[in-house]
Amino acid sequence: MSVPRRSPPGAVDGGGRSARIADRPLLDVSFGGSFAAGAAYTAATGETMGGALARRTGAEAIEVDRGVVLHGGADGLTFAPAAPISGGGVQRPFVVEAAFTPTGGQGSLATVLAVGGTVFARYTGDQLQYGFSVLAGGSRTDATRTVAAPAAGAPHVLSLAYEPGGGGATLHAFLDGDQLPDAVSTAGAATWASGAPGSAVGIGTEVNPGGAERGLAGSVRRVRIAARTGPLATANLALQQVGPLATADLALQQVGPLATAGLALQQVGPLTTADLALQPVRSTAHGHVEFEGGVDAAGGYRTAPGEPVAILPGERLTSLVAKASALRPSQRQLDWQRLGQTAFLHFGMNTFTGEEWGTGTEDPELFAPTGLDTDQWARTLRDSGFTLAILVVKHHDGFVLYPSRYTRHGVAASTWRDGTADVLREFTNSMHAHGIAVGVYLSPADENQYHDGVYANGSARTTRTIPTLVPGDDRAARVADGSLPTLLLTADDYGAYMLNQLYEVLTEYGPIDQVWFDGAQGRIPPDRVERYDFASWYALIRSLAPAAVISVTGPDVRWVGNESGVARENEWSVLPTVTGADGAPDYALGFAAPDQGSDAALLAGRDAGATELSWWPAECDVSLHDGWFFHPDQAPKSVARLVEVYHRSVGRNAVLLLNVPPDTDGRIAAADVARLAEWRAELRRLMPTDLARGARVTGDGSAPGAVVDGRDGSDWTTAGPDTGTLTVTLPAATRIERVVLAEDLRHGQQLARAVLEAPDGAGGWSTIATVGTVGSRRIVVLDRPIVTDTVRLRILASRAAVHLDRISLYCAES
């Protein structure tokens, strides 16, 4: 799968980049992806990877809250850029940055960053040494500086900016927002070490052949590499918030006002410059709320369901919270959030080549499943509790699973089934027959069209007629008589190609409930990535499939920010967003930010340049295997791991998207079928009968009994914000291990903090669990099971009156 695309303006946390980074990065990853195919890293949405990133030993592992975890010694990551940073003597300026957390007791010369075996930042005892090597007059010398090593166990940001010139070179270093002393050579520029891979970058390791055991112990949360043009400016540092930039040794030629927006990892302080021009910003008057919308009967705000609301410059927190509280999901979003557990099916050319990302030049004859059985897919998914299934119709290689009129790179070009194959048709028929909703994945990236000169060919954006009929088109009569709609949409050549394929899929394959646009670009160089015509693509989908949600790179559903199937502890459906020039929404705070929707996050989003608050619920994607496509040497995840994924996705206000890849026979492998059945059985064992159903319920507010009646659309409503107590009384004392809560999202997401309590035996109450956000569903696993006949929910904080749809109590079967 994998989901990279651009980062939002103004972001300085997580996966975001600031608004005016001077140079396109060669690498910018926050480890939201996975090591899906052995050593190679598969990038994720919001990430840029212009080359190959790989782990060295296989022990390097991604953890959601830490990034990639390294153990020192031979551990580490290496990046080989597709376009070399430089060669021979390093004569091009570049920046390499890392957000990392070291452990204590680093090994000798443990390396944080290294480039070409010559530029480095490494530990020497309790010091951090940085610099570069120069080969001059037949001998190699080092230009280095040393500072106190950053504190162990704490997060840090290190940026190295290499700048040649004047017969020498300078390495500027920045650590946690402070500019460090420059390492300077007047003897010459840095030179690649003998035997070191040209332009290779080490992350948590050295790429010099003699430094293979110089691994960093700790974790790396984000890394960014960019070749530079022009003199160094703060806009070149994307991870730092940098303090005053010393310029004594630099000849800066600033065009336009100097800004700190490009330092994405550093927290930048004031810039010392005589040319700094402060621009006034508009702010609201004290106590005044600016809002477009009406006032409802309760004195709050209202806005059309599914529609975002603007954030104003300098807007106060009270206004932002009121807007967030007022947002509601559209009907399509509401229906989607109720799905809970959905399936991904990665099946295509990569299934037969053993790759995760193809090239677009594969022979279609390679695609030849010997026993395609989409009914087996549907039965397996239905019996395992899945409600919707998404087929990868076109991955980044461009190979399509149906006979498209617009390309020969697909099943129609294979002699399998005599060229009449249509996997998409069989898939949709099977899923609909077994009561499973249908989604389609079409990657915006297309390497086949890139090689054919259609993708990113620089063509003009003009009005295109969709469908664009081809010679002998069997749709001509229906288009002419209006039984098939004609759309006029703006697009370039590749945008029109995508529009025509979307038209085929959405008009010929029955109801489609989800359209999934990946953000990854495959092997296409970062500087050749097309600016997609998302606005036109969205318009076509809304016209032809108005009930379908548009996901990930789309306005209805967002990627959660990792490929581990894990939502945030407190996952809000309303968050600050930005909209790109291509019309696609994006995180204002970067996809990896640990907090997206709290009151603090609303303010942070405003300050990061967010333009809107959006109802944009999270989808958690993860594969049953390590890879997204089937590989015979990969086993399915354990039942325990799958249960954990369910609790941390469905149980945290997100929808789970579990990838179940068919094998080369065209079937779901027997081991996978068995594992899914075991998982389903374990979930049923853990949460069998709802002990609260029909119990006696008392509380303030209105209709407290609605939370146990099992009916959708009935709910307990608190008297107002920050208040509400609900007590569930069972017929007898019972062991309780899990509590499930759900809000009625038709009234927005309101609950921010609550406690669950039980009688303490002395006339009072004891806390058995604390609860943060709830949303569509919150599964609370008690630290210690209790035996009680009474459970009380007490709301401590909410944005408005809470509409609680459900409270369920469970004890696992033995």
UniProtKB/TrEMBL annotation:
* Gene Ontology process terms (BP): fucose metabolic process; glycoside catabolic process
One of the record's GO molecular function terms: alpha-L-fucosidase activity
Cited InterPro entries: Galactose-bd-like_sf, GH, Glyco_hydro_29, Glyco_hydro_29_N
| Ranges for region Disordered | 695-723
Q: Does the keyword DNA damage apply?
A: no
Q: Which species does the entry assign this protein to?
A: Actinocatenispora comari
- Please state the Enzyme Commission number of this protein: 3.2.1.51
**Family annotation (Pfam families):** Alpha_L_fucos
Lineage, top ranks: Bacteria, Bacillati, Actinomycetota, Actinomycetes, Micromonosporales
Name the UniProt key words of this record, in alphabetical order. Answer: Glycosidase, Hydrolase, Signal
Keyword Signal appears in the UniProt entry: yes
Protein name per the record: alpha-L-fucosidase
Q: What residues does the Glycoside hydrolase family 29 N-terminal domain cover? A: 365-678
So what family is this one in? Belongs to the glycosyl hydrolase 29 family.
Q: Name one GO cellular component term.
A: lysosome
